[in-house]
């Protein structure tokens, strides 16, 4: 496990690879869980801050316009300076080019920073800056004046995957770059040949299983912790393995610790539980009808069967030049299969699933962030939290489903749909999501999704590929224009 000093971070992005023809085998079924399941740490500063460069179309999204519209989740009437933050933290924010707080930051920060500390359950749309809200609270609460304070964990942040944990480390590094002696530890599974060392740092970010293990082995000292943050909290508390682990971790922490839960989604059954996990919490919540992000244009297209999905994918990439894109599939096996077939065709694609070892996962995501691979094929493991500003298209190759043993009908996974499409359209940028529908059941699931979010998912006709190209390009441009004028 590493302790790191803050560093500056690169931003990635550029033109998409083209992808072409294929043979025809069927993907096997073996659904990928949404949680983390393995591997080493090796955090890196990956954040591009609020760099608004898009590779393909030179569009400057005018954030100040967006932030002036009270209905926009990026809205703000205040400045960071009014929130009583440490000047060195303000310096970090300005180095990141953060000019004004977003709505969630503006609302959450006074509640979070208040003394005596109170718990918080915070919800806001994808890409609206929840990370900065909880990182600012953590940085503000650290006492770095003594060597002991610098080397003893005071804040613990848990995330469902190693990629998200590493990303959060990157944000802390950049935001905290002017805080002397800030050391950050990453607690994610080690490669099988590595031996984790004691974490001597003031902030720890990790996945629950590894954190639990490190506390038990006393290489993570927990008795001075003041803040516990759960990012993607509904997922952390809902999912069997992760939920149990989070509860066990919490039971090993000081009783008066401030508990902070953040997510874009808090389905009812988890919300009730979340308020028990974080007793007496202040709450910032949204109705599910308010959750979709305006800048993300949602589309779908019909395919006749599994093989046709692949042909369609190939067609789509053959005609489109997008920034970076993510293709979400149901199983590790189909991720592998699609990757293999594309590589045979000579394309540079990256694929990341829970099946590969940690250091390799790190290499894949870093390659994608840096724009060395423009297409990332993945499962639900990367559905949440991942922030890569250049992603302008998300493909739901398979519609996300909830797996209920014995259920008669297939059931759409609303939360995962929202998180997946939220990998594009980050902080006022625009993007397109395209869901593939290959039978009646899937069409029904897509309909359920539309109803649940009170949103409209528009069909694109694949009979005429020129038209498809036209529609998608126009969509990206129009949506961009809209976002620009803050509508
Ligand atoms: N006040 C701000 N000004 C400018 N950019 C910001 C601001 N706050 C956050 N951002 C940028 O917005 C992007 C999205 O932020 P973040 O990843 O925290 O979103 P999120 O709310 O956690 O989304 P998700 O629900 O998908 O996890 C990041 O690239 C971040 O740097
Ligand atoms: Mg997030």
TrEMBL record:
SUPFAM superfamilies: P-loop containing nucleoside triphosphate hydrolases. It is found in: Nucleus membrane; Nucleus, Nuclear pore complex. Residues 78-106 form the DEAD-box RNA helicase Q domain. It comes from the Eukaryota. It is a peripheral membrane protein. It is an enzyme of class 3 (hydrolase). Residues 1-53 are annotated as: Disordered. Keywords: ATP-binding, Helicase, Hydrolase, mRNA transport, Nuclear pore complex, Nucleotide-binding, Nucleus, Protein transport, RNA-binding, Translocation, Transport. Residues 312-468 form the Helicase C-terminal domain. One of its GO terms (biological process) is mRNA transport. A motif (Q motif) lies at residues 78-106. It catalyses: ATP + H2O = ADP + phosphate + H(+). Residues 34-50 have a biased composition (Low complexity). Its main location: nucleus. Residues 111-284 form the Helicase ATP-binding domain. SMART domains: DEXDc, HELICc. Its EC number is 3.6.4.13. One of its GO terms (cellular component) is nuclear membrane. Belongs to the DEAD box helicase family. DDX19/DBP5 subfamily. Associates with the nuclear pore complex. ATP-dependent RNA helicase associated with the nuclear pore complex and essential for mRNA export from the nucleus. May participate in a terminal step of mRNA export through the removal of proteins that accompany mRNA through the nucleopore complex. May also be involved in early transcription. This is RNA helicase.
